[in-house]
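User: Can you model how calcium ion sits in this protein?
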Amino acid sequence: MSRPVLLDTDPGCDDAVAILVALERADLEVVGLTTVHGNAPVSETTENARSILELVDRTDVPVAKGADRPLNVPLRTSEHIHGEGGIRGEFPALTAASRPVDAHAARYIVERARAHEGELTLAAIGPLTNVALALAMEPELPDLLDELVVMGGAAFGPGNVTPLAEANFHTDPHAARRVVRDCSPALVGLDVTANAAVPPAEIESLPRDDPLGRSVHEWLTYYDDAQLEQYGIESAAIHDALVIAALVDDGVLETERYPMAVGTDSDIARGALVCDANGVTGDPPNGSVALEADYERFREIVSASIERYLERFEAEASEDPVA
Ligand code: BDR
Ligand code: CA
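Assistant: Here's the modeled complex, given as structure tokens:
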């Protein structure tokens, strides 16, 4: 039986890989993509989400456009990392088939959670504004969900926006604070996702004679040399896809539950995830964080999905050489 998953996303190159893998897996049923500001303004992340669906012929998956800014701080986007418009790659023209549904993402999250009561996994791989708004609309949201998995925070390592803060939490710290406090999330943080990459040799072996191969190549290589050097890694971190890999294989992550909180100050604590590993607060655990990942398993899951897409596209092209 496949597991219903709703992806709240800000595509984004690593979001694109996460979406691709989630759509390809027979053990997951993607019931929608909700979009949020983040890697680019929400009008662009929404177009990017639609473009990804168009690229792989999955316009049957509904898209709901969400928040255009954080709850309490000014909008901050990351085109300098993910490319102009928030994503790299080559996309077909958008069609009416991928047009967003007539509901705000936060409302759509609540609707889907009610429709799949107790069964839905919400995988949030962008700033948490939509999730926080959904929680404000429906305080029972955590109970309606099977699980909330979040790419966010840097639990036991340095941040990528400030020394303490990871981008998704830094972008909307108030939403992150609320969701971490009240939703019992499973956090997959930067300290673990930073090494979730596909090896350069494998990336270079991707065929580039069709748009899908070329786009996937761009998504897997979106860091420039300075960023690779900065983080001491060989190829770009595909942060968000680690969340999807963990959904389909529970051996991918090692996790631990802690009392946790998120800083919201405008200063150095903004978006900082604090895990009370020594139990000094005396508070009960309110969520889990990933401590370690099996990157080999991650890579196998991502590569296998990409390979299956490419095989399918190749087969379709040879059946219809004019298309
Ligand atoms: C997170 O921030 C975004 O830039 C990525 O898509 C990912 O979700 C990593 O810090
Ligand atoms: Ca993202």
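A couple of observations from the model: Residues 12, 14-15, 39, 78, 125-126, 151, 160, 166-168, 190, 239-240 surround beta-D-ribofuranose (ligand 1) (CB under 6 Å). Residues 100 and 232 are 39 Å apart (CA to CA).
User: Helpful, thanks.
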